Amino acid sequence: MSTAATERVRVVVYLRAPEDGAEPLEQAYREISWVRRPEAVPGLLRSELLRDVDRPGEFALHGEWESLDAYRAWQFGPDHKDNPSALRPFQDRSRGRHYAVYGIASEDL
């Protein structure tokens, strides 16, 4: 079943810390404007930086969006396309696509 454009979605961006440590990646995350002010991005409900507990150099940026439409509007809008993310140098492209968009298939309330 596909995700309707009006349903909440989760976006995961796969990241990898540099060999000399995770601080530059974590600092880049903290400096992103929508992390400091998520209310400035219409439709973004929250974001968090996750660290893989088994592979400490691997991270995932998790964002929750009120709808696929809201995410796509930001993804293809000038605020994102014209302003490369400070996290771009850390994107983990070793796995192929460095991000995924997930619809909610099932959720406990």
Automatic annotation (TrEMBL):
Superkingdom, natural source: Bacteria
Entries under InterPro entries matching the protein: ABM_dom (IPR007138), Dimeric_a/b-barrel (IPR011008)
Pfam family, one: ABM
One function term, GO molecular function aspect: monooxygenase activity
EC number of this enzyme: 1.14.-.-
Name of the protein in its database record: Antibiotic biosynthesis monooxygenase family protein
UniProt keyword annotations, A-Z: Monooxygenase, Oxidoreductase
Domain ABM: 9-99
Database matches in PROSITE patterns: ABM
